[in-house]
C-alpha cells in the first residue's frame, strides 16, 4: 500500500507540473519508470489475467461443497392421461392440472483427489500469473531505460549539432569577409557554405531522432504527445566507478534470484507435476452422495371414501417424499483415455523441466553477453574520447593554418567533418556505456536510477 501511494504521489507531481500551461519539468529516470508501472496498459492486461486466475481458484475451492437446487413444475393436459399423483387413468373431455416442487443436493465424496489437486494447481497458476505481472513490469522497466537513454543521447547529439552549425556559420561569415577583400577564393566560400548546409542537415536529423525517442518514452508512460518535460543526465564518472569490477558469477547468482522469468519457469514445472496427479485421479473410483425432497399436486386427486377433491395444501403435505443415495463408479476400461492423459501430463512435465533449463541457459548467455558488452562499451568510450580530442586538436591546427592561407578549404572541411563525427561517436559511446551498466542493474534487480 505504501509503495502504491508513493506511485500516485510521483504520478500526481509529474502530471501537475508538465500538464500545466507552459509547464516544463525535469523527469528523472526513476519517475519515468514509476509512472510507466502505474499507467501502462500492458500491466493492466497482465493484472486482468491474474484476476481471472483468482476466480478459477475460487471456483475450484467451491467445488468441494455440495450443490443445492430448487425446482418447480406445472403441467396441463386435456383428455386422456395417466395421473402419476393420483395413480389413475383419466378419461373425458376436461383439463387435468399437475404440479410439483423439488429440492435436491449432491456432493462428490471421493474423486481420486482430483478436486484437491485442482485447487493446488490453481494456486500455482495464480502464482504464475503474479510472476507474469512482474515479468511485464520488468520488461517495461528495460524499455523505459532504453528509450530514456536514447532520448538523452539524441538530445545531446542535437545540442552538439547546434554548436557545430554555429561554428560553421561563424566560419562562413569570416570567409565571406575574406572573400570580399580577396584573401579567399570562391571555392573556399562555397566549401564553407557546404559545411553549414551539412551541419544544418545534422541538426534536423538529430532533432527528429530526439523527438521520436521522446515520443516513444511518453507512450510508455501513457502521456499525451504534447506533454513537455526534460530529462536528467547521468553522472558518467559515478557509473564508470560503479561497474569497474563486475563478475559473471556474482551477476548470474543475483539474476537467478531476481528475474521473474526464472521463477515463472520453476512454477510451470510445479504446475506440470500437479497436472500428473490430476490425470492419475481418473484411475480411482468415484463416490457420490445425493439427496432430494419433493411433493406433488393433481387436480384429479380425490378422497377414496368421500370422493371429494383433496385440497391443494393437503396434497402437498400428504405427497411429500425424501430420497437419498450413494453411487459408486469404478473405472475399468475407458479406451485408454486416462492412460493417454497421464502420459501427456508426464510429457508436459518434461517439457516444463526443459523450459526451466532453457530459461537458465538463456539467462546465463544473456548475462555473459551483457558483461561483455559493458566492458566493450567502456573501452569504446575511452577510445572515442581519444579520437575526439585528437580530431579537435587537428581541426584547431588546420583552422589556424587555413586562416593564414597555409591550408585549403578541403583540408578545413575534412578536419571539421572528422571532429564533428568524432564528437557524435563519443556521445553515442558514452550513453551506450551507461545503458550497458543499467542492463546489469536490471538483471540483478537493483533500482534503476542515475
TrEMBL record:
Keyword S-adenosyl-L-methionine tagged: no
Record localization: Cell outer membrane
A cellular-component GO term for this protein: cell outer membrane
Native organism: Sphingobacterium haloxyli
Presence of keyword Magnesium: no
Keywords: Cell outer membrane, Coiled coil, Membrane, Transmembrane, Transmembrane beta strand, Transport
Family assignment from sequence similarity: Belongs to the outer membrane factor (OMF) (TC 1.B.17) family.
Coiled coil (residue ranges): 349-380
Any one Gene Ontology molecular-function term assigned to this protein's record: porin activity
Pfam families, per database record: OEP
Protein name, UniProt field: TolC family protein
Amino acid at each position: 500500500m505504501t509503495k502504491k501511494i508513493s506511485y500516485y504521489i510521483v504520478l500526481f507531481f509529474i502530471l501537475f507540473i508538465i500538464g500545466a500551461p507552459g509547464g516544463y519539468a525535469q523527469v528523472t529516470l526513476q519517475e519515468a519508470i514509476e509512472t510507466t508501472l502505474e499507467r501502462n496498459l500492458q500491466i493492466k492486461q497482465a493484472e486482468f489475467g491474474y484476476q481471472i486466475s483468482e476466480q478459477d481458484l475460487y471456483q475450484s475451492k467451491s467445488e468441494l461443497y455440495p450443490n443445492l437446487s430448487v425446482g418447480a413444475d406445472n403441467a396441463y393436459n386435456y383428455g386422456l392421461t395417466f395421473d402419476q399423483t393420483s395413480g389413475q387413468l383419466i378419461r373425458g373431455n376436461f383439463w387435468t392440472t399437475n404440479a410439483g416442487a423439488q429440492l435436491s443436493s449432491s456432493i462428490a465424496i471421493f474423486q481420486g483427489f482430483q478436486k484437491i489437486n485442482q485447487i493446488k494447481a490453481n494456486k500455482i497458476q495464480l502464482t504464475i500469473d503474479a510472476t507474469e505481472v512482474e515479468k511485464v513490469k520488468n520488461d517495461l522497466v528495460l524499455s523505459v531505460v532504453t528509450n530514456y537513454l536514447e532520448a538523452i543521447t539524441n538530445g545531446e547529439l542535437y545540442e552538439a549539432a547546434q554548436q557545430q552549425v554555429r561554428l560553421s556559420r561563424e566560419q562562413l561569415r569570416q570567409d565571406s569577409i575574406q572573400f570580399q577583400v580577396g584573401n579567399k577564393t570562391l571555392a573556399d566560400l562555397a566549401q564553407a557554405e557546404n559545411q553549414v548546409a551539412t551541419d544544418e542537415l545534422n541538426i534536423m536529423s538529430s532533432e527528429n531522432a530526439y523527438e521520436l525517442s521522446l515520443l516513444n518514452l511518453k507512450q510508455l508512460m501513457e502521456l499525451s504527445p504534447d506533454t513537455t518535460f526534460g530529462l536528467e543526465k547521468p553522472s558518467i564518472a559515478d557509473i564508470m566507478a560503479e561497474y569497474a569490477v563486475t563478475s559473471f558469477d556474482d551477476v548470474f547468482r543475483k539474476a537467478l534470484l531476481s528475474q521473474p522469468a526464472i521463477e515463472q519457469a520453476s512454477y510451470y514445472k510445479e504446475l506440470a507435476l500437479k497436472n500428473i496427479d490430476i490425470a492419475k485421479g481418473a484411475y480411482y473410483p468415484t463416490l457420490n452422495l445425493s439427496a432430494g425432497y419433493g411433493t406433488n399436486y393433481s387436480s384429479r386427486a380425490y378422497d377414496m371414501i368421500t370422493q371429494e377433491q383433496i385440497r391443494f395444501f393437503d396434497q402437498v403435505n400428504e405427497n411429500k417424499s425424501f430420497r437419498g443415495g450413494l453411487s459408486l463408479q469404478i473405472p475399468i476400461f475407458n479406451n485408454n483415455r486416462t492412460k493417454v492423459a497421464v502420459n501427456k501430463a508426464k510429457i508436459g512435465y518434461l517439457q516444463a523441466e526443459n523450459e526451466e533449463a532453457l530459461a537458465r541457459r538463456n539467462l546465463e548467455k544473456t548475462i555473459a553477453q551483457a558483461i561483455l558488452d559493458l566492458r566493450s562499451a567502456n573501452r569504446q568510450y575511452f577510445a572515442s574520447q581519444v579520437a575526439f580530442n585528437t580530431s579537435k586538436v587537428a581541426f584547431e591546427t588546420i583552422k589556424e593554418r587555413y586562416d593564414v592561407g597555409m591550408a585549403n578549404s578541403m583540408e578545413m572541411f575534412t578536419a571539421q567533418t572528422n571532429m564533428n563525427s568524432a564528437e557524435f561517436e563519443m556521445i553515442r559511446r558514452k550513453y551506450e556505456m551507461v545503458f550497458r551498466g543499467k542492463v546489469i542493474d536490471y538483471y540483478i534487480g537493483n533500482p534503476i536510477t542515475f
